[in-house]
Amino acid sequence: MSDLRSWLAELAGNGDLGVLSSPVDPDQEVAAVLEAADGRRAVRFDAVRGARFPLVGNTMVGRDHLGPARGCATRDAADRMADALDRPRPCVEVTEAPV
């Protein structure tokens, strides 16, 4: 995947993204929801109290998500991750973005 929005769309298309639109407290409730969903689905929180933007967690639901998130077969994900750690690319500074 090239970006988080694409990955979230992929998860949603596979039924692996839950969306919680009711208000949640960031101090306790977010962690409780993520713990309950751990290993089953990612969760997007659309109404975190005090936040101006949505929050997402559990974006790597299981091992079978590592490959698609990296744009490769699941069996190749560990090698791709090791390669990325050995040869990191420089970060591109973003000064203006919609997020």
- The number of distinct helices, counting runs of at least 4 residues, comes to 4
Order of helices and strands: HEHEEHH
Estimate the global geometry from the Cα principal axes.
globular
Gap between N and C termini, in Å?
17 Å
Helix share, percent:
25-40%
Strand order of the largest sheet: 1-2-3
Q: How many E strands?
A: 3
Q: What is the mean pLDDT?
A: 89
Cα-atom Rg, whole angstroms? 15 Å
Q: Uncertain spans, ≥5 residues at pLDDT below 50? A: none
Major sheet summary line: 3 strands, mixed
Name the structural class.
Answer: alpha+beta
Strand share of the residues? 5-15%
Short description:
This protein has helices at 4-13, 29-37, 66-70, 77-86; strands at residues 17-20, 42-45, 55-57. Strand 1, helix 2 and strand 2 (42-45) form a beta-alpha-beta unit. The two termini are 17 Å apart.
Describe this structure in words.
34% of the residues lie in helices and 11% in strands. The model has no long low-confidence stretch (mean pLDDT 89). It contains four helices and three strands; from the N terminus they run αβαββαα. With 99 residues, it is an alpha+beta fold.
